[in-house]
Each structure stands twice: as structure tokens, then as C-alpha cells.
Hints:
The complex is a heterodimer. Chain A has strands at 9-12, 18-23, 34-39, 46-49, 63-68, 71-76, 85-92, 100-102, 106-110. Chain A is mainly β. By secondary structure, chain B is mainly β. In chain B, a hairpin with a 5-residue loop joins strand 4 (33-39) and strand 5.
Amino acid sequence: QSVLTQPPSASGTPGQRVTISCSGSSSNIGSNYVYWYQQLPGTAPKLLIYRNNQRPSGVPDRFSGSKSGTSASLAISGLRSEDEADYYCAAWDDSLSGPWVFGGGTKLTVL
Amino acid sequence: QVQLVQSGAEVKKPGASVKVSCKASGYTFTSYGISWVRQAPGQGLEWMGWISAYNGNTNYAQKLQGRVTMTTDTSTSTAYMELRSLRSDDTAVYYCARVNRGVSIGESWFDPWGQGTLVTVSS
């Protein structure tokens, strides 16, 4: 049981826009930044979004992050086949669950 | 470029210990911490703990307290994670990741990650 809640799966067709949600509480998302990691099949996770909505250099602007209250979202526009991966949200948690907590991950399928 | 390279796969029997290494390059090792994250087969990411490469301070996940020890060797820019009394549910890919920090204590993220080390616990 992960501290942050994500839908287990999401899907879209090439060119479409998809969003992945991440729900937490006042001790994590509600009071700290949210981060997103992309894990392509058989590889290590890679930082995708930091500080809620910042993209590291090299991450396409098709990826965007947002946060409101105790929830966050990752949006992917202009979906491409190479976006098929697992996506994890993460945050610092001020409670005994922490300090770092992850969502259970969302498997994105490009149809 | 900043890189973390981990040691190779391990197969251990229940009750044994494993020690995984993570060699850093491309940055000043003592300026960042290292976290360890594991991923059981087909499962999500689980944070295990953190160590400061500056002073060796550690913070371990509650469920692993007493079984895990994280250390660093600043002379070789290498971090280590040792897990004892292994059980079958410790079978997982173990990742190290550099911890990047902002101004506030809650502002920290993992980048980059090592390539992962598969630890299999089986009799």
C-alpha cells in the first residue's frame, strides 16, 4: 500500500493528451514539492519533473506537471510510442511514513 | 557526466547478507547524499534509506531498521548498502540515486539513478 495514490494504468493513442493523477495528504503533497519519475521497460527510473512543474534539461516540453492542494498531475501531450513506460510520483513526507514516499506507479500504454 | 555505477547481480540464501556498491563519478561526492530505493518484481518503488556523503549521517525506512546499514567511502566515491537476514521478499532490484536538495528540507529529488542491482534470495 503506497502512501501516494496513482491509477494503476492509463492509455492513449499517438498524438493524444493524457494525464496521470497522484493523490496524497497534508503531510506530503499538501506541504512539499512533487516529483515525477519515468521508468522505461527494463531500465532505471529517470527524473521527469521536479519542484511540481520544472523539467530537467533534455525532457521534452510535452511533459508538464501541476499541483493543487494534496493532489498532483502529470500531463503528456502529443503522445508518442516511446512514452510507453511506468510513471511514479514522489514527495517528501513530514510524518512517520517518510521522509520520501512514492506512488504505486501508473503503467502508460500507447495504443 | 554525472554517473552512478552499481555492482553486479547477487544470489543469496535466506538468512544471509548482501552488500551492494554504488560508485559515483562526474561530481563532488561529498556535496550530495545517496538514497537507496528497491523495486520488487512487478512492483513499485520503495525508499530504503539515505546517507550523507559529507558526514555519514543516515536515515533508514522504519521497516528496515536493524537490518540495513548504509556507508560511504569518500576515498573512492563509493556508497554501500548492506542488508542482513535476507528473506524471499527482499528479492528485488536495488537502486542507488543521488539526492539533490533545494533550500527547504522537503525540497529534494533523486537524480541520477544507478543502473540497478538484482538481488535474488532463494534457497
